[in-house]
From TrEMBL:
Methyltransferase required for the conversion of demethylmenaquinol (DMKH2) to menaquinol (MKH2). HAMAP family: MenG_UbiE_methyltr. Pfam families: Ubie_methyltran. The keyword Coiled coil does not apply. This is Demethylmenaquinone methyltransferase. S-adenosyl-L-methionine binds at T66, D85, D113, S114. It catalyses: a 2-demethylmenaquinol + S-adenosyl-L-methionine = a menaquinol + S-adenosyl-L-homocysteine + H(+).
Length: 240
């Protein structure tokens, strides 16, 4: 059974995830940086650095949210980045951010379903996803769509939470995720479910070698996996 934010609702995971991000959009950036003590910024920089040699010209950022990853990816000097998300609330915050920073000519944000991407085959030089694949309703379908719109020889980089396996980080992580993060997240965002859903979805997500296996099943090759910060998050890389 899929992990969903609002267990008292009958609509599908995709609808619930969109609703959840609409609800917390205004506080999302603050909570991201606060709850991770800013280390999420370091993780994004590391993920982007893995694309330096690729010199991508046209990039796609899936589950772009408020466009933090897309903005970080501008350091690669692409001609254009397209960001897609299913939450209009998050996209609205992202567009305001791009407007303030004068980046609307470099980054375009648009509504888009990760499992049915509105692009032709073989369109993008590189694809990025930060903390988004965990929210796909159908993980395999979403990854297959990424592969479809990626150019042959192109690279996909996925940054996602994972589960530390070693003492004492495993125990500290579980305590923080179950007891501290939901309370702070609920207090700041005013959404009772969002920051309970986060640890539940991380727990259910097939990380590490399990994820690489699915990555390869949909067509990605030369796959690699980098563990970050004692296994709290991971970067997965694959080529088409």
């Amino acid at each position: 059974m899929a992990v969903v934010p609002y267990k008292d609702q009958n609509n599908d995971k995709k609808s619930q995830v969109a609703q959840m991000f609409d609800n917390i959009a205004g506080k999302y950036d603050f909570l991201n940086h606060f709850l991770s003590a800013g280390i999420d910024i370091v993780w994004r920089k590391k993920a982007v650095s893995l694309l330096v040699k690729e010199k991508p010209k046209l990039m796609l950022d899936i589950a772009t949210g408020t466009a933090d990853f897309a903005i970080e990816a501008l350091s690669l000097q692409p001609e254009k980045i397209v960001g897609v998300d299913i939450s209009e609330g998050m996209l609205a915050v992202g567009r305001q951010k791009l407007q303030r920073k004068g980046l609307t000519d470099k980054i375009e944000l648009k509504y888009g379903d990760s499992e049915n991407l509105p692009f032709e085959d073989n369109t993008f030089d590189a694809i990025t996803v930060a903390f988004g694949v965990r929210n796909f309703e159908n993980l395999k379908q979403g990854l297959a769509e990424m592969n479809r719109v990626l150019k042959p020889g192109g690279t996909a980089v996925v940054l996602e939470f994972s589960k530390p396996q070693r003492f004492p980080m495993k125990q500290l992580y579980q305590f923080y995720f179950k007891n501290i993060l939901p309370v702070v997240g609920r207090f700041v965002s005013k959404d009772r479910a969002a920051y309970t859903y986060l640890p539940e979805s991380v727990q259910a997500f097939p990380d590490g070698q399990e994820f690489l296996k699915i990555f390869e099943e949909v067509g990605f090759k030369n796959t690699k996996w980098h563990s970050l910060t004692f296994g709290i998050s991971s970067i997965y890389i694959g080529k088409k």
